[in-house]
What does this fold into?
Amino acid sequence: MIYDYIIIGAGLGGLSAGLNLVINKKKVLILEKNSLPGGLFSTFKKGRFEFDTSGYDIYNYGNLEHVGELQKLLNKYEIDIDTKVIPFNSRIKELSTKKEFELKGEFEDLILELGDSYPGVIEKLKELVKISKEIHEGVEKLLIDEIPGEEEYTNFYKYLDKNALDVLKEMKIPKEVINKLSIWWLDIGSPLNKLSFIDFMDFLEKLIFKKDVVLCNKNLDFIMKLVNKYQALGGKIYYNSEVINIINEDIKIVETKDGLQYKGKYIICDLAKRYVFKDLIKDEYKDVNKLENARTIGANGVVIYLGLNKSYEELGLNNYKYYQFVTLDSGTNIKYMNNLNHNTWIGYVPNVVNENASPKNTTILVLKQIYFDDVFKNQQAQDYETIRNDIADNLISQFEEAFMVDIKEYIEEISIATPFTIERITNSVNGSMYGYMKKGYDNSIHRIISYDDEEIAGISFVGASSLLGSGVDNTIYSGYSVTNRLLKEKE
Amino acid sequence: MTKIDNLKKERKDIAKTYSGKKIKDTYIDGVIKNFQDIQYVKIKDIIEETNDTKSFILVPDEDKGTRELASFRAGQYISLKMFIDGDYTTRAYSLSSAPNKINKGYRITIKRVPNGLVSNIMLDDMKIGDGLTISRPMGDFGYNKVRDEKNVIGIAGGSGITPFISLAYEVDAGLDDCNLTVFYSVKTEDDIIFKKEIEYFNKHCKKVKFVMTLTREEKPGYLKGHINKDMIEPYIKEFNTVLMCGPKALYKTMNEILGEFNIPRKCVHYENFMVDFLPIEEKTYELKVILKNDFKICECKSNETLLVAMEKAGIKAPSLCRVGICGYCRSVILDGKIKMIGGNMEKALAQNDYIHPCITYPESDVVLRLDI
Ligand SMILES: Cc1cc2nc3c(=O)[nH]c(=O)nc-3n(C[C@H](O)[C@H](O)[C@H](O)COP(=O)(O)OP(=O)(O)OC[C@H]3O[C@@H](n4cnc5c(N)ncnc54)[C@H](O)[C@@H]3O)c2cc1C
Ligand code: FES
It folds into this structure.
């Protein structure tokens, strides 16, 4: 049996690619190393709590009125999920100034509020919003292999090679306003002085026009829907099938750890190119190596999942999202994120938007700390357990202190994921949570325009490490966009 | 050249300045590559603890490629992987040794189960120098400094004492900052496992205390009867964490007692040690197992789990804990009626016909999908 396509990895990218291919009547096999699909986007149970591993903001979904790309795509796949729009509901603390503020409601509210404090800023922000629309359209065009017209997309071309911070400064937007707009850099994984303006505007456009949502059910429920649809359309999926070798000939041979072999005309990896060429393909590809050695792996980090035995109201956790930064200036802040117990983190309280997130009178709190350095390198393996607990302890203490709440006495369940956990489960290089870091010439825009040039015959890449980077919308969209190109080529 | 072409070229030019040599592992990649799901060990020593219990000291089997043992937390278990008459099976055993003395090996302590398959082989046939295959340390049971209170009450029944000895070493070594009192109930004095070590802890370690009770005899130095409210009361503080390990019946009585002390649910943790369910009627059904590239048909009995039925048929079905907790055995039921006893499964999986064969009994012919 020779499959049309063999997909390695049943993460969001791989499942989306699989679905689009079986919809187009292709013979597809997905090989997944774990006994469950989902990869980084999954759910695990501990005691009476079910924790979603990730996906606490799903961008670009929108609602009935503002239909986001992700929603459109899922409609196309005939996947029906229950979602809830999340209005901004974040509390942010800047440690260096001890200042604290809330971001609540809609983007328009934020603009108005900023306008009050900084006269003249409203016009500039409106201008920015307009530009973001144009840029978003430009990127969309590139994704379907069309070149945006130079006359029509002047802003797109004007800003094509600029970083976000430089442009915002050039536009004379006050520093404080830039800082408030940049808190999402932690979600993207790159500070504003590294992020391309195009990528940043594309993100802002989603944030403003396509409301982000949370799932009403758990991640695994969504994943199961994708798998069921894929199987119903004839797609095959094998679990416990870790690929250990790819032989890249005309007909590709894929070997799994259990000694089985599969043949396919084409391979799609829901994996980092770096991992595939480092560990799965024995032949040397000099150009790939060069490019890979030039890129920066995305940040890794630690995620603490807490099941608390009180309601969020009782605990005083009334915001969906909590951030602490040392300074709101992202380019400076990132420099502090280079040790195990630094002071920048995000907290999520899913119960605030979804009352079914955990049993009655309990709350889930997820704390996430991101590292921009090899912070584990000098630690001893035998201290690993202690280190893990110490990080958790420290992070929870910081959270309690920053927002004046009591957490520790209410912990019923705790689970701690480290970069080791993440890499062990998904083979994500260096335990990265963001694929590659978007920086310099490796922002999405660069990956998209260079896609054709960098293609290796017969092997494509989807998921967090591919075109669009990490995030539920991006990974699902990458699976769609990459397979569409392949289907077109074949015609 | 268009602006886009320029940008492409710049990306290319930068890449050109980098080395074309093979991409290197990062530090974390390296650690993960060395990470072994399976460990090969040799029996270094066998210690007769009581007339039906032996301890085994396991050290790395370097000839088979295991150079050092994976570290563990007190309370974790390993799963023994055995081939018995050609059939594959597993059994979980808590580690009873000191987590900080891993260079001396792991210790597991096995009590004979009447008619038990693996325990009898381990106790009767295994010799010093024999090799074994085990999983890495698994499980969540134990003390967690972030979650738990400083006053820890342990409740152990029979071989349920094993994780607590490991925990006592951890506390003794100053790795956990808590006071540990373990109530240990056995039938007679002769049934006490780790008697010497317990005496050592009671004498020399201020933060660890074992309180022993005998249910079938009266002897000086021991309490008499099953663990009860009066025994525990003196050790209860304002805030307590209770850890329990033993038969299900013990948990039931203990929960009633703990209820009287108003100990909140969040402070009580159990190790799932065994599943006790036996249908009365014995019937035989047909089990069809769909594998990746094959299928097998075998017999399954109403008083046998699907996992056991598969193992008896020579199918190498994955498993670790065998009590429905680790999720390692999960598979999809395609047809048939079953009864799953307990288990801890995500709702989305349960809704999609996933089961844990290790705790599932057939009630009709069954078709199962197992990706091996
Ligand atoms: C803590 C955390 C928080 C996040 N928060 C958000 C958020 O709020 N909003 C958002 O949109 N996104 C979020 N993300 C990101 C998002 O969840 C991920 O980007 C996305 O799920 C990645 O999908 P992927 O397709 O790249 O595949 P992955 O999830 O990486 O899956 C790859 C799959 O391939 C399998 N595999 C690996 N190697 C092999 C092999 N050799 N053979 C066979 N199979 C193999 C793996 O087991 C895995 O299933 C978060 C991520 C994390 C970790
Ligand atoms: S073996 Fe652990 S759940 Fe079945």
